[in-house]
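re: ur question from yesterday

yeah so i grabbed the chain u mentioned. its 85 aa long if i counted rite. heres the sequnce exactly as i have it in my notes:
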Amino acid sequence: MVTCSKGWYKLSPFQAYNGIDGITSDGIKLNAPIRNEQAKQMDDDALSIIEGTQVLVPGEEGLKDIRVVEAIYRSVAQKSKISIG
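ran it thru and got these structure tokens back, copy pasting raw so excuse formatting
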């Protein structure tokens, strides 16, 4: 369950390559199948290079993910909360 300032989301699983299933606090059912997510991203990367267009997922998004993972490792090692800014 993810609690937000204006409600909550119950997702199962929270993150997966095959999609998510869940419900929001206002009754909206979530069902977002994702098929071949990595293949779609790699195909888009190749087309962006060939056509000189923007990529679907820029490298900055991956960098944000790595910062979160590194903060988790630091938090565990230091046994304290780590702020990401």
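noticed a couple things. The longest helix spans residues 59-78. also The beta strands are 2-4, 7-12, 20-24, 29-32.
anyway ttyl
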